[in-house]
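Q: Please design a sequence for this.
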């Protein structure tokens, strides 16, 4: 079948995309906003530090100040995130780190899309091979002379 080369190309493309990305793009240094977006607020709002809308938040307000001070001292964004991760655990990060078991969280959406697309393609190919479905309604019959004469009378009545 022609499906196997297509599936192989998709799998190979996905692997190349994930492995070559770090080689192609050197990430720019993280700024204040990117670091705040990388941290989940611990006040219970479920938002990031950048998006927390509590005016007197016990976590976001001091964290914003700490991030600004740390950047002013020359600390890198990765070091700041690592410090917060060491202090609060991985739950403080707004997205899972792409290492170990967490890679599954990054790969599963793409894998699910790939599997669903493959199943859909198989389903559509089988449907196309079966041909069009048989019609449930019989084709219309040709009008008889009696019906045509009756229709002609009704049209004549409408004209009067």
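A: Design:
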């Amino acid at each position: 079948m022609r499906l196997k080369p297509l599936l192989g190309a998709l799998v190979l493309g996905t692997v190349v995309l994930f492995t070559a990305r770090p080689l192609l793009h050197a990430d720019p240094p993280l700024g204040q906003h990117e670091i705040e977006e990388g941290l989940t607020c611990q006040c219970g709002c479920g938002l990031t530090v950048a998006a927390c809308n509590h005016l007197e938040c016990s976590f976001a307000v001091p964290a914003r100040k700490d991030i600004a001070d740390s950047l002013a001292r020359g600390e890198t964004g990765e070091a700041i995130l690592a410090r917060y991760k060491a202090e609060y655990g991985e739950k403080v990060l707004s997205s899972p780190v792409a290492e170990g078991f967490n890679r599954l969280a990054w790969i599963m959406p793409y894998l699910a899309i790939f599997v669903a697309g493959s199943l859909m393609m198989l389903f559509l190919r089988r449907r196309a091979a079966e041909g069009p479905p048989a019609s449930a309604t019989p084709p219309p019959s040709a009008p008889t002379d009696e019906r045509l004469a009756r229709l002609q009378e009704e049209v004549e009545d409408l004209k009067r």
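Q: Thanks. Anything notable?
A: Residues 103-130 form the longest helix (28 residues). DSSP finds six helices and no strands in the chain.
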